[in-house]
Write a structure and sequence with these properties.
alpha+beta, globular, about 260 residues
Length: about 260
């Protein structure tokens, strides 16, 4: 093995270790909210959902802009540390619901599971993760691995890849079996201060992916993969691997990938 290959292998080991530590930190901070707060926020979110849901007709049912979730509540940032993290303001759904949105988008796209389960409802999803999976009272959003657990409980078929296992060969294998995915990525490299964002990927519908695409297939007959709620206009890519590695103009770093089927 050449020195260059040894260096790449060493860097890959450290990179994978960092990714596993990141997921472990989310797991450590994963927990639940007080029942009274969950009930209060569920009632608020049901009202917000009534007003928000009609806007989804323009996006084919997908939530594409987390920034529009300000009317929703998920968790709490009360206290000195919480206020410091959010510059003294109260946290709202535009800050921390990306994982919830990803689950909503993927299940809305797939429809009911093979066992008749339908969970495309934001207030219900927020309530569920508030009971199990909310990270650091919501200030860190949701534990990414809680998404897999939740989908399995709802009888969806799921497979996952972590860190360095998110490579082209493995992504190509998942492409053959699934058409919907959820992935979490650092917004910039492996910089924890750039924060982690979680998104849904589907075979794109053509309209938001460009006029030359229809039903997820371009003029050449190749599948197109669309990221939803990616801050880049819900871009389409030629493969699943290109999507997860191309996020944020290629500056993002994928940490966790879940393939979801009915």
């Amino acid at each position: 093995m050449s020195d260059e290959n040894k260096k790449e292998k060493k860097n890959g080991i450290f990179s994978g270790l960092f990714d596993r530590i990141t997921l472990r930190i989310f797991a450590i901070f994963s927990g639940k909210l007080k029942k009274s707060l969950i009930t209060e926020q569920y009632e608020k979110n049901r009202e917000a959902w009534k007003k928000f849901k009609p806007t989804l007709e323009e996006t084919g049912g997908f939530i594409e802009k987390q920034s529009e979730m300000k009317s929703f509540a998920y968790g709490t940032n009360k206290g000195f540390v919480g206020k410091k993290l959010f510059d003294g303001r109260e946290m709202n759904g535009s800050d921390n619901t990306c994982e919830v949105i990803a689950v909503y988008n993927v299940t809305n796209y797939l429809g009911v599971s093979t066992h008749g389960t339908s969970i495309a409802d934001i207030p219900l999803l927020i309530r569920s993760f508030s009971h199990k999976g909310v990270a650091y009272k919501g200030m860190f959003g949701t534990n990414p691995k809680a998404l897999k657990r939740y989908l399995k409980e709802k009888r969806y078929t799921v497979e996952d890849l972590k860190g360095s296992k998110i490579n082209k060969a493995n992504c190509d294998k998942l492409e053959k079996k699934y058409r919907a995915f959820i992935f979490s990525a650092f917004n910039k490299g492996q910089n924890p201060f750039s924060m982690i964002h979680t998104m849904c990927i589907t075979v794109c519908d053509g309209e938001s992916g460009g006029s030359d695409q229809l039903d997820g297939v371009d003029e050449a007959g190749s599948k197109q993969y669309q990221i939803h709620n990616d801050y880049e206009g819900s871009k389409c890519y030629n493969s699943l691997y290109e999507a997860v590695t191309g996020y944020n103009d290629g500056e993002g770093h994928p940490v966790y990938l879940i393939a979801v089927g009915r």
